[in-house]
Specification:
CATH architecture: 3-Layer(aba) Sandwich
Order of helices and strands: EEHHHEEEHEHEE
Shape: globular
Number of strands: 8
Number of domains: 1
Number of helices: 5
Helix content: 25-40%
CATH topology: Aminopeptidase
Largest sheet: 8 strands, mixed
CATH superfamily: Gcn5-related N-acetyltransferase (GNAT)
Radius of gyration: 16 Å
Structural class: alpha+beta
Strand content: 25-35%
CATH class: Alpha Beta
Length: 185
């Protein structure tokens, strides 16, 4: 189990299966907030807590099996989840060295505290410790997240035009990134 504390006092931790199940209401609230704030994370505006909770619940078996590890940021002095990311391990026999980063979310009232960076750093450390050295992710072209990934040393594969719909239903581009963790040793 990974645990870390940011300079601002937020706690970064991984969630086992039971803790993940208990955190679903907070994770759902975090996802609803992200979509309400315009984040392109698979959903359109108007996402409700029930649908968001269902999305997280659908990953419970993968968390229990160890395919997915959920990392969360908890606010100083509370157990409130204010950030998250997922490390999604490839299950294919030819992919034991790779994983995907998904759902890097930070609540709007907890932004500008370095939580996304702390979550990414923790996910990368966890992946490296697990023997996963090739990571990939995608993000909305032109977003603050795109700039953060570049600043963290992620390499741009390219842009796929019209990959997804934005929260308001308009087609938008996505950038795809990768990172080789062996280069950071």
């Amino acid at each position: 189990m990974l645990r870390a504390t940011t300079p601002g006092g937020d706690r970064i931790e991984t969630l086992g299966a039971d803790a993940y199940a208990a955190a679903i209401p907070d994770l759902a609230a975090l996802l609803v907030d992200a979509v309400a704030g315009g984040a392109s994370v698979n959903f359109l505006e108007g996402l409700d807590a029930t649908t968001a909770a269902g999305w997280w619940e659908a990953r419970s078996a993968s968390v229990a099996e160890g395919e997915i590890t959920a990392l969360v940021a908890r606010a100083p002095g509370s157990d409130r989840i204010v950030g998250s990311t997922l490390l999604i391990r490839a299950r294919q026999p030819n992919g034991p060295h790779r994983a995907e980063i998904g759902k890097v979310l930070v609540h709007r009232d907890a932004r500008r505290r370095g939580l996304a960076r702390a979550l990414m750093t923790s996910a990368e450390r966890l992946a490296r410790d697990d023997g996963r050295w090739l990571l990939h992710l995608d993000t909305q072209t032109g977003s603050a997240a795109e700039a953060m990934y570049r600043a963290l040393g992620w390499r741009d594969v390219g842009v796929m035009p019209w990959h997804s719909l934005s929260v308001d239903g308009l087609p938008m581009n996505k950038n795809f990134f990768w990172k080789d963790l062996r280069e950071e040793r």
